[in-house]
Amino acid sequence: MRAWKRLSTALLIITTVASASVTTGTANAQQQGARFAADPTRSVDTSIGNNGDGTTFPGAAAPFGMVQLSPDTQLNKYASYDYAQDTILGFSHTHLSGVGCQTMGNIRFMPTTGAVTSSDPAAYAAKFSHDHETRSPGYYGVTFDNGIEAELSATQRTGQHRYTYPGGTAPQNVLIEAGESNGSTYAGDVHVVGDDTVEGWVQGGNFCGETGKERYRVYFSAKFDRKFDTFGTWTDSTLTPGRRDATRGSKRAGAWLSFDPAGGDRVGSSVGLSYTSVDGARLNRRAEQPKSFDRARASAHDTWRDELNRMRVAGGSTADRRTYYSALYHSLLHPSVGSDVDNRYRGFDDKVHRADAPYYQMFSLWDTYRSQNQLVALLEPDKAADMAKSVLRVYQDGGWLPRWGLGGGETNVMSGDPVTPWVVDLYNRGLLDRRTSQQLFEALWKNANEVPADQSLFRGRDGNPTYVKNGFVGYQNLPGYLYGDSRQAGSATLEYALADCSLSTMADGLGHRDKAATLAARCDNFAKLWDTGVTSKGFTGFPVTRNADGSVAGDPDPTQSGAFHEGTAWQYQWLGQQDPQALFGLMGGQKAAEQRLDTFFDLPTVLSDPAKAASESWVTGAYDYHNNFAFNPNNEPDFHAPWMYAWTGAPWKTSAVLRALRTLFTDDAYGMPGNDDLGATSSMLVFAMAGVFEAQPGSAKYLVSAPMFEKVEIRPAHGRRIAIEAPGADASKLQYVSSVRTGAGTLRTSWLSHRDLLRSGTLKIKLSDRPTSWGAGVAPPAVARD
User: Fold this and answer.
1) Residues 751 and 667 placed together within one structural domain of the fold
2) Distance CA 639, CA 635 (A)
3) Which of 162, 383, 602, 698 has the largest CB neighbor count within 10 A?
4) Would residue 480 be called left, alpha or beta, if left means φ above 0 and alpha means ψ between -120 and 50 degrees?
């Protein structure tokens, strides 16, 4: 049913090439008057992706905020909210958007009426209907079937609650669970303070199948706007009326508060969070406490309106704008502020430190280095610089750089070396001061050449011993680890090579010539995996996984995953974008590589029926990364693949593939084809619809494709306005770039640098409904050979 729903929606969005000429005149007439919306928040639906694929949450949060206050419909399941469910267990204060592992969901509040008889959320959960939900950036509201209305909003470090109870004489309750979360919880305490406050903490940390890892402790201080008449606490299933303190037993620890209906029908609460202490949570609550819930809601709305206006669009269909702005919203939720208002934070050494700027955490780097990092750097350069400094503090406090940081701990999830291109991108955009750049380079150089002595916390690049020696990671199935570069040796080699190549540009810029040369020599290490004896689908030569002695490890069939992380050699063969000419040389040259790309995307079907190609020819399903040869738009390693046509002399094909890609994203709860992974998938879509994308992480260069809106306006914080104008742009038909003019003149290449984009003023893009030769003359440069 879901697949049919997607396909039906996609068919409504897009028309075939045959019908494009019929609709051109109408579309142009409609778009001549395209104007920017005064309030883009009205085009955001936070329910998009609220299913088992996108794993987003619908609740209230501020951009990059510490708090994500959202309903939970089930525990131990991704973001703990599934659109298909009809029961809410409560509202917890921490969530990660789009993660494919259950985690967070800490400090859950739930309003009830009547006697409190159980600590089991199954006993006090409430039925609801989506018809009675209200969702918008910074706000969530729902009226339960039992008549209780719950409203949520958020500041950066606080969650704001307002509950309206139905009339009657039954006690009005708020239940607070601090010992059970969405995922593993190790400890928790609650304390009822006086007659209007509850405080406590919860400790958790398991992630993506790993166990026994206590990675964070989050504290809270909740103050109510009415005094409660009675209260009690529970440990596991034992409820004790009148008791003020409870400690988690084997499962739960919580408190309940009961209010006299004679005091009114509403109860409000302001909840401060902190990762340092209860004192920090109390400080955050007092500093950010709004004058009223309505003020909090209005402030959150205004903040999101301004944030979304940083990259606003005009033209397109209502569905296009809803899809675009919802993706932009999801792109700007993380990384999350981890420091208190006084910049105190808990480091990776489990000690409290004070930074000189906001400290960020929740770094899903394997995902975000390919798309979301670039979007944050473009729109919020100051915040991006603070995020880089936060990563440096992880190194200074913990001794190594993170790969996937959860709160104050490293998860070691995924493979490769994502932090390197993530940092280099910010350096090559000129966002880092000299001192920070030098310190980060020293950390990155260590990471690129050594291995942590004690891998209990950081595994680092555990494939370095064989990689540094031989140029490839030797396969080794290390016992006791679910993740590790030696287990995913094929893909890890490719990720290392890209990272080292990007780092060579930073080394060169900082004057480390010898180190730059050493790193640049690793740019083409993908060639060390190339095996000309492997054939598939009529093509010869593919990357394989090798043992430390150079022999092929396992089955070299490029349609089987083997030791390629969440993919196959067919999908990973394009992860050599740091030097496409060398990569294409292994494939038999530019034209042979183009033919291989055409097969990968099923280009004939893309051109005749884009929606069919996307839904039938490509990989479908959020978790179908294994044992396939086709394009996988649902997972990060393939994000850049559509733009590889820029190096084949046929950049027009990128625009065609992206129009097909657009059909997979719809403006409903099932509108995200794969995990959003802290905004990574959404950011890729934002760039694809805007017409620019950095396909070579670390290069700070954008490739240009046909925009899907008539107007895109980019307004970086503290920067000059950038306009992209594409008269007649329409996502529902195949269109191609025929010419580009900037404030500096005609752009004859298919790319421009980040600096040139910032200086461009206006990019005027002319579009054609037929393939063109624009941008075919000169290929973009290799990362280390500019």
Assistant:
1) yes
2) 7
3) 698
4) left
Looking at the chain, how many residues does it have? Answer: 786
Question: How many other CB atoms are found less than 10 A from the CB of residue 115?
Answer: 10
Tell me, rounded to whole angstroms, the distance of Cα 34 from its chain centroid.
30
Q: Are 90 and 22 in a shared domain?
A: no
Q: Which residues contact 604 (CB under 8 A, 6 or more apart)?
A: 598
- 3 state DSSP class of 270: strand
Query: DSSP secondary structure string, 344-362?
Result: EEE-TTS-EEE-SS--EE-
Answer whether residue 619 is part of any domain: yes
112 pLDDT exceeds 70? yes
Q: Is the peptide bond before 771 cis (omega within 30 degrees of 0)?
A: no
353: left (phi over 0), alpha (psi -120 to 50) or beta: beta
The whole-angstrom separation of Cα 394 and Cα 388 is 10
Same domain, 3 and 120: no
Looking at the structure, do residues 119 and 73 belong to the same domain, yes or no? yes
End position of a domain, from candidates 305, 336, 351 = 305
Mark out the alpha helices in 221-356 (DSSP H runs). 278-288, 293-308, 318-331
pLDDT at res. 473: 98
Residue 461 lies in a domain: no
Backbone angles phi, psi at 79, to 5 degrees: -85, 10
DSSP state of 623: T
Nearest to 493 by CA among 551, 400, 565, 557: 565
Both structure tokens of 244 = 């003020």
The Cβ-side half-sphere exposure at 763, using a 13 Å CA radius, reads 33
- The predicted-structure confidence for 582-615, as pLDDT tens digits, reads as follows 999 999 999 999 999 999 999 999 999 999 999 9
Sheet holding 711-714, edge to edge: 311-314, 711-714, 722-725, 762-768, 736-742, 745-746
Which CATH number covers residue 169? 2.70.98.10
- Say how many domains are in the chain: 2
Structural domain boundaries, residue 16 = 1-33+593-786
Same domain assignment for residues 292 and 252: yes
In 3D, which of 269, 177, 189 has the Cα closest to residue 223?
269
Angstrom CA distances, 29 to 80, 212, 316, 690, 725, stand at 45, 61, 12, 21, 16
- Give 7 or 139, the one with higher predicted confidence: 139
Global confidence as pTM: 0.95
Contact yes or no for 760/742 (Cβ under 8 A): yes
Residue 783 forms part of a structural domain: yes
Q: How many CB atoms lie within 10 A of CB 212?
A: 8
If you write DSSP's letter for every residue of 16-70 in order, what string do you get? -HHHHHHHHHHHHHHHTT----S-GGGG--TTTT-STTT----SEE-TT-S-EEE
Identify whether residues 10 and 110 lie together within a single domain: no
Residues 281, 190, single domain; the answer is yes
Report the SS3 class of residue 576.
coil
Name the nearest CA neighbour of 2 among 58, 64, 51, 60.
Answer: 51
Domain final position from 305, 336, 368: 305
